[in-house]
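Take a record:
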Amino acid sequence: MNNSSPLMNPDGGDRVWRDDREPALDNLMARILERDNVKRAWARVKSNQGAPGSDGMSLEDFPAYAREHWSEIRQSLLDGSYQPRPVRRVVIPKPQGKGERKLGVPCVVDRVIQQAILQVLSPIFEPEFSDSSYGCRPNRSAHGAIRQVKTILKSGYRIAVDLDLEKFFDTVNHDVLMSRIARKVADKVLLRLIGRYLRAGVLVGSTVEPTEWGTPQGSPLSPLFSNVLLDDLDKELEARGHRFVRYVDDLVILVKSRRAGKRVMVKISRYLTQVLKLKVNREKSRVVKIEDLNYLGFTFRGIRIFASDIAMQAFKHRLRGLTSRSWGVSMAERFERLNRYLRGWMNYFGISQHYTPIEELDGWLRRRIRMCYWKQWRRPRTRIANLLKLGTSKRHAILTGISRKGYWRLSKTLATQTGMTNEWLEQQGLLSIRNLWMKVQGYA
């Protein structure tokens, strides 16, 4: 998009200020449509990539469309006549096969507009959010939430009230949410626009279904809306003196006894259902010892942080797929995709303080890579020649090269390990799980 684009140079005015130099919250649309704000919104949407919405427009198509239509879009936003398009329904499986997650993909124009709204509203709401809220907030993360749980554990709170909100994003009550947004936003044009986004509908196949409830996951505004709605819950918990951590809709309250935990479960569940009009999944909500809590993929042993058994199983399952000997890709491509996954997983789960499975997985992964090389070499003559080239003794190279035993068994022989050494595998490009973990822990 060039500088002559109407999107880059909208006819927006300056910010509107009250006498006390605070931004006028009843005239936010002008600020939302300022040139710099819209320009930043487009840059963010473009960097996030994403698929086309219900109108089929791609990110590549948007600049030309904006040059031709942005002026009229901007005017319709200012006069309150703009009508958002329905979001496109995308269904993805949840981890470990635990059902499906419904996502809503807005069209590119609406993503830019929502991002521009977010950039103005976030600084208005953000300062008053709870210190115990960590999800979808600047300079906060799941790691911060986990460390906060650890801090509370040190004070002797070892019983967890694990409250599960059933299909949270799909069941948000629009009236309850809008009433909380309106506490800080007096701009009626903006409030009507937000209401239209909530009720824009969803395109399922070729049919547009109404959205009387919920805020679509995939919308730039949904994370902020979740925090706006659940901030009332945070304030209620603080007023009652509870120790808690919330990451979007993942809430854990820590108490000192099961009796207290059951009492808290009943009272907070009542607040969620009666005041915020949300659904509590009573089958998944529970009061447990901290050792039995699985929070954001982590568990706790005393005050030590461990990756959960479910997370470790999923990790190993994914590695098994990336090191399948029947996967017909080059070793270079295999290493690239494998290393990308290892870095991403370790950046999140590397704060785990449990070292033993890391060491075991490192050896297991190297063995699987040796198995892949063994399959790739295929013929006995090739295997023997490669082993000899790598320094394996002639006797062991020949005996192993002509063996009819299985790939997995032969990947742990003296011949394959003295040939395909750890150092050699590293030279080929394989990252060490142990080294990645040590780096995250600050030991390397």
